Automatic annotation (TrEMBL):
Keyword terms of this UniProt record: DNA-binding, Phosphoprotein, Transcription, Transcription regulation, Two-component regulatory system
UniProt name for this protein: Sensory transduction protein RegX3
InterPro entries: CheY-like_superfamily, OmpR/PhoB-type_DNA-bd, Sig_transdc_resp-reg_receiver, WalR-like, WH-like_DNA-bd_sf
Residues with the 4-aspartylphosphate modification: D53
PANTHER family: REGULATOR OF RPOS, SENSORY TRANSDUCTION PROTEIN REGX3
GO biological process, one term: regulation of DNA-templated transcription
CDD domains for this protein: trans_reg_C (cd00383)
Residue span, Response regulatory domain: 2-117
Pfam families according to UniProt: Response_reg, Trans_reg_C
Domain spans labelled OmpR/PhoB-type: 130-225
Amino acid sequence: MRLLLVEDDNHVAAALSAVLARHGFDVTHARSGEEALQALVPESDGFGVVLLDLGLPDQDGYEVCGKIRKRTSTPVIMVTARSDVRSRIHGLNLGADDYVVKPYDTGELLARIHAVSRRTAHEEATGATETRVLLGPVRIELPTRQVSVNGTPVQLTRKEFDLLALLAQRPGVVFRREQIISEVWRTSWEGTGRTLEVHVASLRSKLRMPALIETVRGVGYRLVAPAA
């Protein structure tokens, strides 16, 4: 898999590139936001994952993420020292698929890379079904992966859509955390649990319907169908 590593620290990039190469990744190193955007031109061969450090010298990492998402659907994993939920939600709102908080374990990083790449490959292999889901004012178009509330489009990341679509399959039914992680992230890795919480919070914020997804303590989540 080709991986775009966006990291301004050459020593960090060299060490990480060596680790990624040992695990079969073909790494392209971009030292700035502008270099990253130039590497993602439409005529390029394409990358499987973008690993984006937010501490860049020329542009804010969040801004770079937004620009990347406008030109490609390639999964983006943010690397940040900011561990608060608001910062993570902000990154997801801009189109990031996942995040890793510094300092991180290399095994954790590899697990997240493989998780987002497996999900992308699964979507491409299975394609979309010709159905839609209507939940009161919420409309979910599965073939085009579009969501609207009262007719207003809502931009979701890949995993936010997958999470919402999964819960919408059976409104009122509780989905266990382990089941959600398995079906949305295609992994049983325990560290994904925190990512799930952030994605749920982001969905509630974007849809402006905090009560739509109910937390069932100690078990998981369920979708509470709103009134039409």
